[in-house]
Amino acid sequence: MILPALDVLAEGVLCTLPAGQTLLRAGERSEQVLVLLEGRAEEVGPEWVRVIDTPGSVLGPTDWAGTTRQAVCTVRAVTDVVLMAVPARAIRAGRLR
Predict the structure, then answer these.
(1) What angle do CA 66, 69, 71 make, to 5 degrees?
(2) Greater pLDDT, 7 or 19
(3) pLDDT value of residue 18
(4) Tens of pLDDT, residues 72-83
(5) Any long-range contacts for 90-94 (C-beta under 8 Å, 24+ apart)?
(6) Taking the chain, what is the end-to-end CA distance rounded to the nearest angstrom?
């Protein structure tokens, strides 16, 4: 069912960020899950770079369901991006399945 997902998105904040902006740094603790809506971003790990341009993609692999909520890579906007920043607490509460 899609309705629980809509409840979670209703708690999110729509953001527009410019190309070159760092969205998340490796090792940072994050209280938000970033969902790409438009544009292109890149995830940069110790030995890899992954370009993401699919709307609905979650950016920055993060232990947001666990206790550390630390980003495992750095995420940057390659182009101007539109994203939804969803509170991780909404997901941990089980409202997104």
Answers:
(1) 130
(2) 19
(3) 97
(4) 889 999 999 999
(5) 90/7, 90/8, 90/11, 91/8, 91/33, 91/64, 91/65, 92/64, 92/65
(6) 8
Element at 87 (helix H, strand E) = strand 81-87
The residue type found at 91 is I
Closest C-alpha among 5, 15, 6, 22 to residue 37: 15
User: Is residue 32 classed exposed, middle or buried when 0-12, 13-18 and 19+ CB atoms within 10 A define those classes?
Assistant: buried
Task: Give the whole-angstrom CA distance, residue 92 versus residue 50.
Answer: 26
User: What structural domains and CATH numbers belong to the chain?
Assistant: 3-92 (2.60.120.10)
The answer, as to whether pTM is greater than 0.85, is: no
Q: Which amino acid type is present at position 33? A: V
